[in-house]
Design brief:
The structure holds two protein chains of two kinds.
Chain A lengths: L3 E3 L4 E4 L4 E7 L6 E7 L5 E7 L4 E3 L2 E6 L4 E6 L8 E10 L4 E4 L3 E6 L1
Parallel strand pairs in A: 2-11
Antiparallel strand pairs in A: 1-3, 3-8, 4-5, 4-9, 6-7, 7-8, 9-10, 9-11
Chain B lengths: L3 E4 L2 E4 L5 E7 L6 E7 L6 E7 L5 E2 L8 E7 L2 E6 L8 E7 L11 E2 L3 E5 L1
Classes of the chains: A mainly beta, B mainly beta.
Chain lengths: 111, 118
C-alpha cells in the first residue's frame, strides 16, 4: 500500500465548476499535511497547508480527518489557470521535515 | 517567499559521464536540503536528505556511491550523478526548509534539473 494515495484522474471540468480531490495516508503518526500544485515540467509549489479544523484560502478549501486519515481539497469556481497536478503531501517525521508525496491528481479546466 | 535555485536547468550527457547539480537557497540559510527525483507521470521520490556539515541520509534503494551529495555550506548542496546511464534520465528537484519559518515543515523547491543521458 502506498504511503499517500490519490486518484490520478484526470478530472476534466468546465470553467466555474466545483471540484474536489481526496487523499488518504497510511501512517497515523503523520504530523503535517499540505497540498502542492505542480504545473507541467515545473517544480511543485505550496498551495496550502491543511489543518485539523479545516482551512480556506479564497476559492480553495482544505480539510483533514485524522480519524479516517483522509485529506481533501475543494476548488470552487474553477479557472482555466487552475489546470495543473495537485499533490497531496504528508510530513511523516516531524523533526527531519521529510515529505511523502502522493502521485498527484491532474485537473483540466475547460472553457 | 523563500527562493531556491538550481543549476543547470537542463543537462544532456553521454552515458558514463558524471553530472553535478547545484542547489542554492538564495535568501535564507538551510541546514537541511532534500533531493528528489521524478520520472514521467510519477510522484516525487525522496532520494536523500542533505545535512550541512555531515553525511547525507539516503533513502532505501538509493545508491550513495552513485548519487554523491555534498552540503558544504548553509546555502549550497550539490548532487553528483556518477557514471550516468540512460535509466538515470529524470527530473531532479531539490528543496530546502527555512528553519525560521518552517513551523509546519514546509519546503521550498528549486526549479528542477532535467537530465537526459544518451
Amino acid at each position: 500500500r502506498k504511503e499517500v494515495e490519490q486518484d490520478p484522474g484526470p478530472f476534466n471540468v468546465p470553467e466555474g465548476a466545483t471540484v474536489a480531490f481526496n487523499c488518504t495516508y497510511s501512517n497515523s503518526a503523520s504530523q503535517s499535511f499540505f497540498w502542492y500544485r505542480q504545473d507541467c515540467r515545473k517544480e511543485p509549489k505550496l498551495l496550502m497547508s491543511v489543518y485539523s479544523s479545516g482551512n480556506e484560502d479564497g476559492r480553495f478549501t482544505a480539510q483533514l480527518n485524522r480519524a479516517s486519515q483522509y485529506i481533501s481539497l475543494l476548488i470552487r469556481d474553477s479557472k482555466l489557470s487552475d489546470s495543473a497536478t495537485y499533490l497531496c503531501v504528508v510530513n511523516m517525521e516531524g523533526n527531519t521535515g521529510k515529505l511523502i508525496f502522493g502521485q498527484g491528481t491532474t485537473l483540466q479546466v475547460k472553457p | 517567499g523563500a527562493v531556491v535555485s538550481q543549476h543547470p536547468s537542463w543537462v544532456i550527457c553521454k552515458s558514463g559521464t558524471s553530472v553535478k547539480i547545484e542547489c542554492r537557497s538564495l535568501d535564507f540559510q538551510a541546514t537541511t536540503m532534500f533531493w528528489y527525483r521524478q520520472f514521467p507521470k510519477q510522484s516525487l521520490m525522496l532520494m536523500a536528505t542533505s545535512n550541512e556539515g555531515s553525511k547525507a541520509t539516503y533513502e532505501q534503494g538509493v545508491e550513495k556511491d552513485k548519487f554523491l551529495i555534498n552540503h558544504a555550506s548553509l546555502t549550497l548542496s550539490t548532487l553528483t550523478v556518477t557514471s550516468a546511464h540512460p535509466e538515470d534520465s529524470s527530473f531532479y528537484i531539490c528543496s530546502a526548509r527555512d528553519p525560521l519559518r518552517g513551523i509546519l515543515k514546509t519546503q521550498y523547491f528549486g526549479p528542477g534539473t532535467r537530465l537526459l543521458v544518451l
